[in-house]
Amino acid sequence: MKQSIHDVRTGMKDRAILVSLVTDQMKKQEEIAAYSLQELVQLAETAGVEVLETLTQNKDRADTKWFIGKGKVEELRALIEEHEATTAIFDQELSGAQVRNLEESLDVKIIDRTQLILDIFAGRARTREGIVQVELAQLSYLLPRLSGHGKNLSRLGGGIGTRGPGESKLETDRRHIRGRITELKAHLSEMVRHRTLHRERRRKTGVFQVALVGYTNSGKSTLLRELTEADVYVENELFATLDPTSRTLELPSGKEIVLTDTVGFIQNLPHDVVAAFRATLEEACEADFLLHVVDSASPMREEQMRVVGEVLGELGASGKPQAVLFNKIDLCTEQDLQMLTAPFPHLRISAYNEADLDKVRMLIQETLMGDTRTFRIPADKGDSIALVYRIGDVAESSMDEEDMLFRVNINREDYEKVEYLLSPFEVKEDKQGE
């Protein structure tokens, strides 16, 4: 259920004018600039804001004092008075001084894209780790801008832009906020340590890990739910899932893997968000295989794929084995379907089509089972035999005196990952079985 943000004075939703600055440099990518503003509308609606109108300013560069220029501020003021707006939301990031100047001139709450995304995250976080990461991101973003938010916080005791850390924390001095940031980082480090231990435990058991990555609202959570029957929140809105969810998925061979849904990416993802959510996004870095889920029906599909590639690059995960799942093909025309190509292995699917889900399972299995190896293991080595079944697909098994012979389909990465857990005798390939 979508959570609305209300002005605590009236009990009404924030009423906002959305503002975008298109510089000369951005004019070369007018389609992307227009899409960014459209996306800002979706973000505002996701945050529970009533969007009244949008305003675009074309300018050589951002005005250091007013961001959109004094003349455009007057035009914005007229719109605010006409529509009785309570908030102005900017599609780009503002400095503390710009926020302060706009506040004093317009006498409404001033929010930028970063703060809006962080506010949505604050409403989405459910686990302790997610809540800590959101507060850390919000405080890291607001610390250098405190001087620009004083009037916001004194005028309104709540609403968009103040959810999460809250009014009282933001009104304390910088020293106390820095102390809180240090405390949150310590909490997060401990959580990261526990998460790393869990990942190491999974690795030692030879469990294959697959991460679903992609642009927000591309259908990752739906795919996780349909593949694993997981009880996860699914909604047609941005950032419906914030905390990572891992579930066991059984492949056609009977082998089980871990499938993880990660937070959705978005263009201009705030630096503070990437930094604070690095622990969560590391699920993508630690995965053996990435499934890049794409909204096939989006007119900005290629741009969204580019953004996901950039964020994976920032995380150091761009070189990982991956496949592209062009989702939502039921919403595409035949012409659209012909355009769905990628430099990686790819499938065209609908997350609600069982035959397509079977294709996804087979794709994972074929990626997992790359090479065929033959192992000779003493029959009394139950742990080693169980490990062989976990790390690959046992195609054939037989007895040879006191030993078991196994022909196993397994990729090189999985083999090397568990090789040290088996004795030299056990991993020695039986040449006669080749």
UniProtKB/TrEMBL annotation:
Which InterPro entries does the UniProt entry name for this protein? G_HFLX_dom, GTP-bd, GTP-bd_M, GTPase_HflX, GTPase_HflX_N, GTPase_HflX_N_sf, P-loop_NTPase
One cellular-component annotation, GO: cytoplasm
One GO molecular function term of this record is: metal ion binding
Q: Provide the protein's localization.
A: Cytoplasm
> What Pfam families does this protein map onto?
GTP-bdg_M, GTP-bdg_N, MMR_HSR1
Q: Which cofactors are named for this entry?
A: Mg(2+)
User: What are the boundaries of the signal sequence?
Assistant: none
- Its main localization is cytoplasm
- Name the residues that span the membrane: none
Q: SUPFAM superfamilies of this UniProt entry? A: P-loop containing nucleoside triphosphate hydrolases
The residues that hold GTP are: 214-221, 239-243, 261-264, 327-330, 350-352
> What family classification does the UniProt entry report for this protein?
Belongs to the TRAFAC class OBG-HflX-like GTPase superfamily. HflX GTPase family.
| Stored NCBIfam families | GTP_HflX
Name the job this protein performs.
GTPase that associates with the 50S ribosomal subunit and may have a role during protein synthesis or ribosome biogenesis.
Which HAMAP family did the record assign? GTPase_HflX (MF_00900)
| Quaternary assembly | Monomer. Associates with the 50S ribosomal subunit.
Record's protein name: GTPase HflX
Species for this entry: Paenibacillus lutrae
Q: What is the lineage of its organism?
A: Bacteria, Bacillati, Bacillota, Bacilli, Bacillales
